[in-house]
Amino acid sequence: MSRTPLTREEITTALAALSGWALSEDHKSIRKDFKFRDFNTAFAFMTRIALLAEKLDHHPEWFNVYNKVEITLTTHSAKGLTALDMRMAQLANEYAG
Q: What is the pTM of this model?
């Protein structure tokens, strides 16, 4: 999957299909807060994302407290958003149910 930075138009188009994800002010990352039934469900979600991250060699920035998981995605090597970030966001939405 490409690590080429997306254009603003490509970002806008991709985000339209990603429920709940918000673009940062600098347009270099996207973020979403997920809320689960309990800690175990949140941790299971994080485990699935961790396995995906290893497979894609693309790792999220995240923060977890009890049943909440906050994820920020960016591609540091591209200094912005790439198709890899959008794919990971799409799969995170699917994994969260």
A: 0.95
Domains observed in the chain: 8-96 (3.30.1360.20)
pLDDT for position 85: 98
Tokens (6 digits) for 45:
């979600």
**Res. 3: pLDDT tops 90:** no
CA distance 14 to 8: 10
Query: 3-class DSSP state for residue 23?
Result: strand
For the chain, percent of residues with pLDDT exceeding 90 = 97
Q: What's the full length of the chain, in residues? A: 97
Contacts 24+ apart (CB under 8 A), 54-58: 56/1, 56/84, 56/87, 56/88, 58/84, 58/85, 58/88
d(CA 53, CA 9): 26
Side by side, the strands of the sheet bearing 30-35 are 22-23, 30-35, 68-73, 61-65
